[in-house]
Design a protein that fits this description.
The chain has about 80 residues and is mainly β. Helix content is about 0%, strand content about 30%. A hairpin with a 4-residue loop joins strand 1 and strand 2. The termini are far apart.
C-alpha cells in the first residue's frame, strides 16, 4: 500500500474467526492482495473433501468514512 497506514490482523483459533483492519489517511486505489491466509486441514482429509470458506464484512468505509459495499465471494477448499 503506497498511502501509508496501520494494519491489524487478529485470529481466534477457538472460534475460527479472523479480523482484519486497515486505517489510512487516503483511499487505497491499487489492485492487489490485502492479505494471504493459510489453512491447516484435518489430518484425515482425502481427495475430493471440501471445506467451506466464507467472508463476512461487518463494516467497510473509505478514508472519508463513507460506507462501501464490496462484493464478497464465498468458496471452498477442495482437496486434490
Amino acid at each position: 500500500m503506497k498511502t501509508g497506514g496501520v494494519v491489524s490482523c487478529m485470529f481466534n483459533n477457538d472460534t475460527q474467526l479472523m479480523a482484519y483492519a486497515l486505517m489510512a489517511k487516503k483511499d487505497c486505489t491499487a489492485d492487489g492482495s490485502l492479505f494471504t491466509v493459510y489453512f491447516d486441514l484435518p489430518a484425515g482429509a482425502k481427495s475430493g473433501d471440501t471445506f467451506p470458506v466464507s467472508i463476512k464484512i461487518s463494516a467497510c468505509t473509505n478514508a472519508a468514512g463513507k460506507m462501501l459495499s464490496p462484493e464478497v465471494i464465498n468458496g471452498v477448499i477442495r482437496v486434490k
